[in-house]
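Hello,

Our lab assistant flagged a job as stuck in the queue for most of the afternoon. It eventually completed. Since we weren't sure the result was trustworthy after the delay, we are filing this so someone can double-check. Below is the sequence as submitted and the structure that was eventually returned. Let us know if re-running is recommended.
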Amino acid sequence: MKKKSILLVLVLALAGLQCYAQTGSTEIKEDFIPSTLNQPGKEYPMVNSQGYARFKIDAPQAQNIEVSLGLGGAKGGTPLSKVEDGSWMGTTAGPLDEGFHYYHLTIDGGVFNDPGALNYYGSTRWESGIEIPAHDQDFYALKNVSHGNVQQILFPSESTNTSRRAFVYTPPGYGKDSSKRYPVLYLQHGWGEDETAWSNQGRANLIMDNLIAEGKIEPFIIVMTYGMTNEIKFGSGFRNFDIKHFQTVLVDELIPYVDANFATLADQSNRAMAGLSMGGMETKMITLNKPDVFSHYALLSGGTYAPEEIKDKSKVKLIFLSCGSKERPDGIKSSVEALKNAGFNAVSHVSEGTAHEFLTWRRAFYELAPLLFK
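-- returned structure --
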């Protein structure tokens, strides 16, 4: 893999692109409602129709509280102020991008989660989550349709001398027809996240259910596993990340286990790999290393392919590249244009108004899924 491609992924993953829209003297509307990701019965945090977030923390003995938004707090802090009842309150300086955001609290120098919000694994720890309602949220909404199943599996890994975990999405109706077999997408999370990310933060299972109910895709299986076989500290880059360890787990251990235990179409033409951010880096490395294993490639805010990197064009059915409009969309578009000119079936997608965040990747997955296994 070229150094330039790796550096692009690192810049996107670690830059913590700013997601605030500065509003100057814009008046904040007092139409706040509880975030949909709150713990049962909890009123705060709240969001309003403009995309502002408001927080309230009960910590009467605290001296200082700040809310840090984004992966690792990269989107900036919102200081809270003590109010009459002894609690601390504050509102973001500007509206947030639509969609999902991680956040945590810093209370007198210690890092804590918000007891009012549900937790999601990110930044190599469980973080609080908040959802800013998106204008296009219908495609990942929980609807009254037939639902697939997301199940945990534990598979033996001789290379790591342990049992490893993965989550497998099987579509509605899976198992009813014993003769029916399905293509498989191996879908990877980003840095600091784990195998829960795509179903929890990404809502990939709900996106699939809705697409299937609308008749927009043929059903397929999704497998999501932990991609960090080498533990990397935040800020250290990926100098010590050696893809061969995860490649062994995925190709030599997980794929055979899935093919032996699920109704899969166990051949290269019916197998895809995709990943966001760091998972895109992993996807690129493994698909280039193992062209006989995967036929559909997708990098979501995770770099690009150059035509000359792919040795056998006949083995590749689809290359899908995407990012947010606040990332590097020109690079995505130019790469896809070059791939098309070289004769590849290549598609680009740019999520408008978002950066390196989960609404970008939800939208990308929604666009990607109908293109797979055609």
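-- support follow-up --
The delay was a queue issue, not a problem with the job. The result is valid. Helices lie at 3-14, 197-200, 204-213, 243-261, 278-289, 329-341, 358-368. The longest helix spans residues 243-261.
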